[in-house]
């Protein structure tokens, strides 16, 4: 089986659309269709089926995709290891992150040190990063721990805590800290319940016997910050994000007596080859966070 046919198959399996897949591959749609028919003939079974305008993987197609992804990954790992013998350095890192703000400063400093390394950072939910690592679409994850999986290695970086963010013109803006019961009288703009920061807050509220009911639920930290600036209410966000807002119209108030906390760390697949670029990026993050640099 030609490796080229597997490449064509994997792109079509991702797109499930012949025209889009052909565009990605830089070939015509008839050419792609012909190549897929060759692969199906070689395997003796259909890999795709069409229903109306939609394309689906068959059971055989799903089996091939799983193994083709692994073949593709193993070949890439082999190239990296062989490249090490001749001093070749990797040019690209794919990173899944539970919030780009967790990496912004580290990305800037790493790029200044290694401008030839291409960094692709995707803001993803933890389960999306988890899946991306297992399917070899990501090299590294920066997520909230623990992420239990025997196929992954986790390395802690720092503890994230939640803080209250409110307009500097609000009557509470000058207090040194605020308790969860005190927030029951404040209009709140919070994450939807599917987000980890909201789950951390809700768990702390349950432990404290407090019920916080937001007046608005939003899906991004930036939108919550904008609402707080306009005096709509207070929001509860990670301290690492609050630290980079640099807004002069906001006050950041620690939660008391103990702010909800969650460990942030690196995760990567055990079978991933730590080439110089990936290893250097991991060391760079650990030096920045573990040593406070």
Quaternary state reads single chain
Proportion of helical residues: 40-55%
Based on CA atoms alone, the radius of gyration comes out at 24 Å
How many beta-strand elements? 12
Q: Count of DSSP helices?
A: 10
Biggest sheet details: 10 strands, mixed
Shape: elongated
SS strand fraction = 15-25%
Instruction: Give, in order, the helices and strands.
Output: HHHEEHEHEHEEEEHEHEHEEH
Mean pLDDT: 86
Protein architecture, described:
Residues 1-58 form the HTH lysR-type domain. Pfam families: HTH_1, LysR_substrate. The chain has helices at residues 3-15, 18-25, 29-43, 59-85, 104-113, 126-134, 196-208, 221-229, 239-242, 276-290; strands spanning 48-51, 54-57, 92-97, 118-123, 140-144, 152-167, 178-179, 188-191, 216-218, 234-238, 250-256, 261-269. By secondary structure, it is of the alpha/beta class. The chain starts with a helix and ends with a helix.
């Amino acid at each position: 089986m030609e490796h080229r046919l597997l490449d064509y198959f994997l792109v079509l399996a991702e797109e499930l659309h012949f025209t889009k897949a052909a565009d990605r591959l830089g070939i015509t749609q008839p050419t792609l269709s012909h190549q897929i028919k060759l692969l199906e003939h070689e395997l003796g079974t259909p890999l795709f089926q069409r229903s109306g305008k939609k394309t689906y993987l068959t059971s055989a197609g799903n089996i091939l995709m799983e193994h083709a992804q692994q073949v593709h990954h193993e070949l890439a790992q082999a190239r990296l290891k062989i490249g090490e013998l001749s001093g070749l350095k990797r040019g690209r890192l794919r990173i899944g992150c539970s919030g780009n703000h967790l990496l912004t400063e580290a990305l800037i400093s790493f790029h200044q040190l290694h401008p030839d390394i291409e960094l692709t950072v995707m803001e993803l939910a933890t389960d999306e990063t988890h899946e991306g690592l297992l399917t070899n679409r990501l090299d590294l994850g920066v997520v909230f721990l623990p992420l239990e999986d025997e196929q992954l290695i986790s390395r802690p970086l720092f503890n994230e805590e939640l803080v209250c963010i409110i307009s500097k013109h609000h009557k509470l803006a000058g207090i040194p800290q605020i308790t969860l019961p005190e927030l029951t009288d404040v209009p709140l703009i919070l994450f939807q319940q599917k987000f980890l920061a909201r789950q951390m807050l809700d768990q702390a509220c349950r432990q404290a016997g407090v019920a916080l009911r937001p007046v608005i639920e939003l899906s991004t930290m930036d939108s919550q910050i904008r609402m707080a600036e306009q005096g709509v209410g207070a929001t509860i966000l990670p301290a690492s994000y609050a630290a980079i807002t640099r807004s002069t119209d906001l006050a950041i108030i620690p939660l008391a007596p103990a702010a909800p906390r969650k460990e942030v760390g690196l995760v990567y697949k055990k079978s991933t080859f730590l080439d110089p670029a990936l290893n250097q990026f991991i060391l760079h993050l650990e030096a920045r966070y573990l040593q406070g640099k």
